[in-house]
Specification:
With about 150 residues, the protein is an alpha+beta fold. About 30% of the residues lie in helices and about 30% in strands. The protein has four helices and seven strands, in the order αβααββββββα. It has a five-stranded mixed beta barrel with strand order 2-4-5-7-6.
């Protein structure tokens, strides 16, 4: 009579290793997706949370206020707005070619202090879609709600 066949049972250690690998995979997936999201604060949001934002770097979206763009030796100064709220921006570096008044932009930087409306930026990103055309100036008003 042949010896009885032993059933192969998964050991608790092997199950633990698989559980750990699955947990690590889920964690890496969540971290990767979370850090790849590209978001920004509106001016209203940033001003409402200015104290908690402090001087940490974040992205701020607004519309360039007409008549406020001024070239400086290190870049440019201008204002952006959302409705009645205005933030003054000091940017270092060259603005993009499409940068002009009345267009939505996203600036990357920080407030100079938790109580200031002065925003120091090192990057300006012009918001436009692939089908942007200067022949539709009303798009800016529709996209932001109002042109400042």
């Amino acid at each position: 009579m042949p010896p009885p066949r032993r059933r192969r049972r998964l050991s608790w250690r092997l199950l633990g290793v698989f559980a750990l690998l699955i947990a690590a995979f889920v964690f890496l997936l969540a971290e990767g997706l979370g850090s790849s999201l590209d978001y920004f604060d509106t001016i209203d949001q940033a001003l409402a949370h200015r104290a908690s934002l402090g001087t940490q770097t974040f992205r701020l979206e607004g519309t360039v206020v007409p008549g406020t763009i001024r070239a400086t030796s290190s870049g440019s100064d201008f204002s952006i707005c959302q409705g009645p709220n205005v933030v003054d921006v000091t940017n270092t570096g060259s603005p993009p070619q499409l940068f002009q008044a009345r267009i939505p932009v996203v600036v990357v930087g920080h407030f100079t202090s938790p109580t200031s409306t002065r925003f120091v930026s090192n990057t300006i990103m012009v918001k436009h879609s692939a089908n942007y055309s200067a022949q539709y100036p009303g798009r800016v008003a529709k996209a932001t709600g109002a042109v400042c």
